[in-house]
Amino acid sequence: MDIGRGPLRLVAAFAAAVTALAWSAPAFADPPRLALPANLSAVIDFRVVLTDGERSFTDGAFGKSRFGGGGEDVDVHAVPAAGELVWHGPLAWGLSGTVAAAYQDRQDQPVDLIQAFATWRPVPRGATRFSVRAGLYWPEISLEHSGPAWQVSDMITPSAINAWVGEEVKVIGIEGTASRQLAGGRLSATLGLFGFNDTAGTLLAFRGWALHDQQSGAFSRQALPPLGADIAGLQPQWSTPTLEVDHRVGYYARLEYQLIAPVTLSAFYYDNRGEPTAFTSHLQWGWRTRFLNVGARVDFGPHTRLLAQALTGTTRMGQDADEEDEYWVDTRFRAAYLRLTQEVGRLALSGRLDLFDTRQRGEYVHPDDDETGWALTGAAGWHLTSQTQLILEWLHVESDRLSRLRLGLPAQQDQNVVQASMRLSL
């Protein structure tokens, strides 16, 4: 894992900023809170970014970060990265609703609907508790995101796993959850049925994994990098994550067990039951995507926690009528991460290691589209006040993918991204 000399100035800048942050942390008093009307909340994120390396996937390239670089030169971006408005409140007895809309820089639709769902939690009448959720939402996969605004706590960039969940695993569906005490802990089981997620897997197959904090909107498209010659006429240079193609119902199931000890274990299985030969008039295809995700959270104390997830799955698209076992695109994918967070007063220090890869076995894709990569992320989040958080983050990512040769780039690329985020929560 050789980071190299060129990016060291970015790392040095990050280290100096964290040191200054730690020394000055106790200096701020909490001012009066700013408040929105009842049941409304908002998150505003202004970002300053220094980055090197290749162009971003948001520009139709193979870059792994939301913000691309200029090769060996360092690019500077100062942008209002996101602004999200959330309504969350009661609808009826035991029934609540959540609606979230957001502005996001570098999205196909800068303002879009993010989530819209209703949750029913009846009053418990025994040892078992029940809840039902229905609408547009992310299934409960990520251990890094929380709250109605689905924000990553104490970091800017989620893991490769949860970045992909944010961009391609949003559903319109209904789920039911039951939980009860078991052996001193609590066991929860969830079953969900859904549609409008038939293109999940497109980005993993054609672009590979990425590390970013963009969230897919209900009406937005995702750009794809240059495609191989065999598939270029069959798939446009974009994908629509929230789309129904084959009118088949997918499903997912989740188990979670909270032990007596401060340990929570979870397992999640997803199958969209996509029809690989179905397509729309815009050549958006049904992808048969299945994956298993396992996760763990360990609280070593009130201020120290370890998060871990591992995900493995397959996604398939296209099929010749006379070759039922041969798919045009057949991608195996897997990723894993470990993240440790230590809180010191108002300061939270986090570090994460990501590993990821994809393997191609389809008729119209080749080993050139295989991918192997890893990433290191370090972050310092400082709660200036109860509503304002400053987060400094350094991300280093390396990956190897021969399909970069289509852009005249070396197959192996590395990138450093240093970000400063001022996050205001109202």
User: N-to-C SSE series?
Assistant: HEEEEEEEHEEHEEEEEEEEEEE
Straight-line N-to-C gap:
41 Å
CATH top-level class: Mainly Beta
Roughly how many Å is the radius of gyration? 22 Å
* Poorly predicted regions: 1-5, 21-25
Shape: globular
What oligomeric assembly is this protein in? single chain
CATH architectural arrangement:
Beta Barrel
Question: What is the CATH fold-level name?
Answer: Porin
Strand content: over 45%
Largest sheet: 16 strands, antiparallel, barrel
- Whole-number tally of structural domains: 1
Mean pLDDT: 90
Structural class computed from helices and strand pairing: mainly beta
Question: In what order do the strands lie side by side in the largest sheet?
Answer: 1-2-3-4-5-8-9-12-13-14-15-16-17-18-19-20
